[in-house]
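Practice set, problem 2.
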Amino acid sequence: MIYDYDVYNDLGDPDSNPELARPVLGGSKKYPYPRRCRTGRPRGKTDPRSERRSDTFYVPRDEEFSEEKEISFVTKTAYSVHMLLPSLGATLKDPDLGFPSFTKITQLYKEGIPIPKLKNQASMQILALRLVKAVCDAIDKQFETPAMLEKDKFSWLRDEKFSRPTLAGVNPYSIKLVTEWPLKSALDPDVYGPPESAFTEELVEPEIKDFMTIGEALKQKKPFIIDYHDLLLPYVSKVRQIKGTTLYGSRALFFLTPDGTLKPIAIELTCPPMEGKPQWKQAFTPSLETVGLWLWRFAKAHFLAHDCGYHELVSHWLRTHCVTEPYIIATNRQLSVMHPIYRLLHPHCCYAMKINAFARQALINADGIIENSFSPGKYCMELCSMAYDQQWRFDREALPADLINRRIAVEDRTAPHGLKLMIEDYPFANNGLMLWDALKQWVADYVNYYYKDSSMVRSDTELQAWWTEIRTKGHEDKKDEPWWPVLKTPEGIIGTIITIVWVASAHHSAVNFGQYAFAGYFPNRPSIARTNMPCEDPTEERWKRFLDNPGSELLACFPSQIQATKSYGYSTCVIKSFSG
């Protein structure tokens, strides 16, 4: 078995098509990234820096699935991705074809989609949207109806369904306290235009006038924000050159009301100077007036597409799957199988490398499901690299440190778990902190049993080599950062191990298993926005179409039929197979 490190140089496939060339992630200042397991495949002919792609991806024998897991994975995920999803292309021949009405979307859960007979497979006359069930028994005749749609098919239109998932949804890692006002971009204004935010006192105060002024709100720590502006804006002009998608730099502002719920205040969308036009920037607020109401719905759709992409690329893939692979490689290279830390970590990393290899093969690769289903398109993994460079720090991956960094919590010895939450009704944090304390106690008891004092930690050469390799090889592009913990004491081991265990277990569960529940009905959480805002430099014809039939224009902005069904396939078969 070979456990060694390599960069992500196997996502593109320029040998088969120059359009599928992708940059190497890792090993450069431009595209820093964690390392993956080396496969040993030959270099490509077109780009010698990249590996030649093949149908199989090497993983060490000990990382292979068990027989039971292999059967489950092949019948659910591999079959779906390699046979059922390509068959969609034969049925939905127009990749840009959208849904003609919202009724047609809901019919997917009752009637499904007819597909042609699969090669070497029994005839399946209807593709079930709940792909896992369809592959397993081939008798289910429609997509499984998401719980939120079954209960209330109009709930996605309400603002509370926009704000509540930021605390109790599939991406509870992005919201943070507003700590400065007015907001300003840190990007170069000569390139990206004026840095001042469109969120002004004049815009915000009418939305919170029943409660307080913006100054009072800041003092009482009531405004919260999800801010993707500076991460996305450098990619807007690139993404807009891709057919069938668009992008903005975006922010969403929320206000914590006296009853403890979040009220959405405004959404800001920005397009940098491009094609000889100046920067375009506008903030949208909730409205009862018809035009304002529909523009607010469009703004929510765009922001949700950005949040959906960030969740998948950063909160999920990068912060759980991707950063964990170096821990697994170093554990197998530096720790014996009888080492107590090896035995402690092994159950939490089971199957992860095999799953990651599958992701490189069919999900995050060039022209894979992610690129075809999310707004950044072929720039998805570049954007992921930028997030790793700008945002990822090991010392902030622990739940308490993450909450404190986002100013969602402050240390308070008198509060439960030693933290006081700025938002008391924050289910992810409340439940997560209970799990964190339980995991911490368990890890502490285990570590303290084997390491009685600091001298035992410092003298453990396997342990020290393991941690050094994680920093200097597995995360080589960040090896000189000052924030890496140093393993000198039992407390240092406990803090490091609990962070790894948390990321591989509870963090991953929080961002993985709710995906179909929240995104199974895509108007509630679209993965891509295909058209610009109706008010961004509109032609007379487009503005008239918007005024005459805003619902049809919103449908045109939502994912196409094939994008929606591929996204469903991802959020079903992949989630189930990634469950360990």
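Problem 2, part (b): a different protein.
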Amino acid sequence: MAAPLHGTNEGTNEPRPNPFGNYSLLEAQQPKAVGSSAAVRESPFANYSFKEAQQNDACPSPTSTGAANEGVPEAHMDADTRTVFVQAADSVSGGSMHSRLESDTHQHYGMGAEMGSSYSQQSGVAMSIEQYAIRTLYEEFRDRAAAKIETIVELRLDREPNLAKHLGHGADATFDRTLEKLGMLARRRPRVIIELLLVWRKTTIDAADEDPLESIGGAHDPQQHQAAALSRAHYIVRERKSLVSVYILCRALDAVVAQLDASHLEGDLGDRLEELVFGQVKQVNPANLRRSQNRREIQDLYARMIGRISGIRFSSMSDRFIAELERIPMVSSSSDERIVELLHNMRFIRLRVYPIDALEESAAFLLSCAKFYSRTSGSLRLKHAWASLLTELLMPMAAVVDAEVNLPELVQAIDIIYAKAMKMAAKVRHVTVAFPLAAATLCVSRRDIFHQRWLSLLEYCIQRLKDKQFRRVSMDAILRMLWVYLFRYPESTAVVLRRIDSLSRIFFPATKLHAWPKTVPPAAFVYFLVCAACYSFDFASRQLLQNMLQVDSGWPGTSRDIGDAGPILDTLNP
């Protein structure tokens, strides 16, 4: 069984700090006071994973008899939307109807799919309620999305609007709730909801393509330069509508997928959803992403969606990435750019350690990545992209592994990655990515491998503490290895306390009254003290804290000595 995310400090109910569910020292949160027995001691690292959509609102339901049959007038719907609604009603009599959505690749972000639906026969009353809920919620989504598009289109055309500011999570609470309700309704009818979203995207772009030039403002001027200006303005508006509609579609699909499980994505629906999302990732043009921040934001939304889908269909989604990496020839800078972008989109994939089938799939995927990484040569950017990706894959895994580290495939993958990472760590230009990766591999290694290797990496990191530009990554690697050493693979108590004391003399030198406060976040030093106190509170309070407070030398003008501080320090012990 996997180890819990947080261990328990001996003698108390306090959870031990764990740095692996989180990642960055740069956005540290201060741990709770050591002396508070009720407080949870949190890791001072920002969380790796993205937040799941909250599920607070219920789907709309009819409020009166007969309301289920009223809904929204059919005249207000386009033909494709009406077809999808008819599918839901058609299943009442046991029939089925299939809608075909044409593929649209407008400005690379075109969305479309050929998807069919048929449902098991339901009672007439239950189906009419579902039909009403779907229709009402879809109309609410369509109207709010149209208002968002119009608002952004009306912004000045000479500047690219920040779509995340207008459409991102938290920008509009009402719109966020609408997307959450769509996701909850998708638990009952995932195929219908997904089809409606794709139809909405297609019809939105079709309407944008049909807008006349005069809609930009003024009649068409016969002069050439004015005609060119109108044409350019029309292109900008059409492109802006396309990007906004894709951004909204990605947020809606993400909210839907967040509510689904394996039973919802079985068969062709899961395959087509994977193909839809992965197709946008593998066909992206890196040059377009460099020119437009909004396109980068959209690509990140696709990557998050891939992370969600991989949590349900890990094997098939990971196989798509490996197959695509094998198809890209590593012979040119353009190939390197494509691979780097593909790796960037893999960072939300999460490796799982249980059940055993999921662990074996994760280990096989990691082994394939390790082999690609070991063959990487020449391109600095490609090496760093692989190192960063593998670090993000391994760190969450390091928080929960236990006996799983003995799986042969996982052991083989870790050995390959560690050898390459240490080779890179010897060169200054790779230190910022090699140290975190080497530490991550040790944190998911077997006990004997960890004790054999961690001291050499610790020495590397301590040496790099002298370099201002490497202090943060060095401190980060030290703290992660220290947590594993103290709480997962400890040696005898005397040896462990000597290690803690040695590190404390490095972090808090007796000859200085400060310890690099401008280059290393204070939370890193606080976290070291918390780890030490969780392992042995008596040692931390009487050796480390007293030395830091200089209790043994007394305060100016007083005769206070170390014996006087004992009762005060005892009150800190929870």
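Answer key, part (b): The first helix runs from residue 79 to 90. The chain has a mean pLDDT of 78.
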